[in-house]
Amino acid sequence: MSRGAVWKYGDDVNTDVIFPGRYTYQIMAPEEMARHALEDLDPAFAKGVKPGDVVVAGKNFGCGSSREQAAACLKAAGVQAVVAKSFARIYFRNAINLGLAVLQSEEAAGALDTGDAVDLDLARGEIRSAKGTFRFLPLPASVLGIIEAGGLIEYTKKRLEREQE
């Protein structure tokens, strides 16, 4: 279980505002990508986000183009999870591949506000806050493994190492 503060946004937060399109074709280190996370939507985000914080949003989070940078910049900024009413499917998969937890919970997305403290228990499928305990469908063991490993590449490397032992 881990604790973080909420950064709340609305519906249809697209990949162009998660990671501004003007940077798409620039090669950047993860730390530099983090400095541009959500800058067009919330200029305070990149300066104020702390490791373990949680982005909460409405429906269709991550809609738009299929750019991995939109998940990578949030992870590089220290975001431990995105909680939303729903996700664009490609964003959902990109986030998992990069080791960023994406949790669907209409109830939590509706109740939580910027600044709320939350505890996430990925294994139990719970988001706890002063406003209550909210459930999300627990993640399958394989997805938890990918997130815990830091992404699909690291997960696969570790799995191959275990198989070779």
Can you walk through the features of this model?
Helix content is 36%, strand content 19%. Strands 4-3-2-1-5-6-7 form a 7-stranded mixed β-sheet. It has 8 helices and 7 strands; from the N terminus they run βαααβαβαβαβββαα. The chain is of the alpha/beta class and 165 residues long. It has one domain (2-164): Aconitase, domain 4, CATH 3.20.19.10.
Helices, strands, pairings?
Blueprint: E1 2-8, H1 15-18, H2 30-35, H3 45-48, E2 54-57, H4 69-76, E3 81-84, H5 89-98, E4 101-104, H6 106-111, E5 117-121, E6 126-129, E7 132-135, H7 141-149, H8 152-164
Parallel strand pairs: 1-2, 2-3, 3-4
Antiparallel strand pairs: 1-5, 5-6, 6-7
Helix pairs in contact: 4-5, 7-8
Characteristics:
165 residues, alpha/beta, Aconitase, domain 4, seven-stranded mixed beta sheet, 7 strands, globular
Short recap of the structure:
The chain has eight helices and seven strands. It has 165 residues and is of the alpha/beta class.
H and E order: EHHHEHEHEHEEEHH
Largest sheet, spatial ordering of strands: 4-3-2-1-5-6-7
The radius of gyration is: 15 Å
CATH A-level architecture? Alpha-Beta Barrel
**Please, how many domains?**
1
Structural class: alpha/beta
Largest sheet: 7 strands, mixed
- Which percent range fits the helix content? 25-40%
- Unreliable residue runs: none
* Continuous helix count: 8
